[in-house]
Design a protein that fits this description.
InterPro entries: WH-like_DNA-bd_sf (IPR036388). The chain is mainly alpha-helical and 206 residues long. It has 2 domains: 47 residues, no CATH class; 136 residues, Orthogonal Bundle (Arc Repressor Mutant, subunit A). The protein contains 7 helices and 4 strands. The chain has a two-stranded antiparallel ribbon with strand order 1-4. Helix 5 crosses helix 6. The chain is elongated, with a radius of gyration of 27 Å. The termini are far apart.
């Protein structure tokens, strides 16, 4: 019986070569078929042309990157409808406030394009969607109980009354990166997502 002699040095070299080939292939896929040497050479030329300054590769933002939009989780909304979880008025309210949902925070704000968006209270929401305050208040209270809205407090408003800030459950409507949901939102709706109906939503973001 002959013993098989393993050359670990040679095996390691082959493994490294294989890793380098994989890295090279990944690089070419990310840079539209150009290999690392070609990119490095191009960077050297650009660096020389700019007086030896360090050069970085970047891409110009698409004009569409400034477009504001919200995402509706269609299967979740359909699931709630099938289970008669929302009234017609609540559905209309959610549709009306979509245009005021701020990016990332998912809070209802006055101007979604503002650098530092100003949150709006119940009275201001009523004005924005052109309904009576009492009507808006009832719907918000109902949606808070159902776990689709969260009402927070932001210090003191007028007449020593606390100003409320309304946030939307991102499992229904979300203005942000669904793969990187705001941590504060996760805390706000953590308990709500454990309740009957919501715990069985077909699509979960957290």
């Amino acid at each position: 019986m002959t013993k098989k002699i393993i050359n670990f040095g040679q095996a390691e070299q082959k493994a490294r070569k294989r890793d380098l080939e994989i890295e090279q292939k990944q690089f070419e896929e990310e840079h539209h078929g150009m290999d690392q040497d070609a990119v490095d050479e191009a960077l050297k030329v650009l660096s020389k042309a700019t007086g030896g300054k360090e050069i970085y590769i970047g891409t110009k933002k698409s004009p569409q990157s400034k477009v504001r939009f919200v995402q509706i989780l269609q299967e979740n909304l359909n699931y709630l409808s099938e289970n008669d979880y929302l009234t017609s008025r609540e559905k209309i309210f959610l549709f009306d406030i979509m245009q005021y949902v701020a990016f990332d925070s998912n809070g209802i704000v006055l101007d979604i394009k503002a650098k530092n968006p100003t949150p709006v209270n119940i009275s201001e929401i009523a004005k924005l969607i052109k309904t009576e305050r009492s009507h808006t208040s009832r719907i918000i209270t109902s949606l808070v109980k159902k776990g689709l809205l969260f009402k927070g407090e932001s210090g003191v408003e007028g007449n020593n009354a606390r100003a409320s800030v309304i946030f939307v459950n991102p499992h229904i409507i979300y203005a942000g990166d669904k793969d990187n949901v705001n941590e504060a939102l996760k805390l706000m709706f953590y308990k709500a997502m454990k309740t009957p109906i919501l715990k069985d939503l077909p699509n979960k973001l957290f």
